[in-house]
Design brief:
mainly alpha
């Protein structure tokens, strides 16, 4: 496929799933990112890892933590947009139907 479709998922966390599918793969990849962040934090803070391991672990930990933050921001924006749309729909449905002149 050479053209990105509107419903595509560039990070491939839901490849093959239809738009609006169950949140299983996204939850799983989020859990993997969280575990990776925790492991990197342990390697950086612990005394078991030498400096040669701690520096790349810190870089990987920062990257995975930023990915988790971006996912949280995107989820918050999506929930806010969905709530605003529901309020707008309710206000529209509650308005009277205009009469024909």
């Amino acid at each position: 496929m050479t053209v990105l479709t509107p419903g595509c998922d560039p990070d491939m966390s839901v490849s093959g799933a239809p738009f609006g599918a169950a949140p299983g793969p996204r939850l799983r990849s989020g859990a993997v990112l969280l575990a990776l962040t925790a492991l990197c934090a342990y390697l950086v803070m612990g005394d078991a890892a030498p400096g040669v391991v701690a520096v790349p672990a810190a870089v990987v930990g920062l990257c995975s933590a930023s990915a988790l933050v971006m996912r949280g921001v995107r989820l918050t924006q999506h929930r806010g947009t969905a709530a605003a749309a529901a309020v707008a729909r309710a206000a529209h449905r509650g308005s009277p139907v205009p009469a024909a002149p």
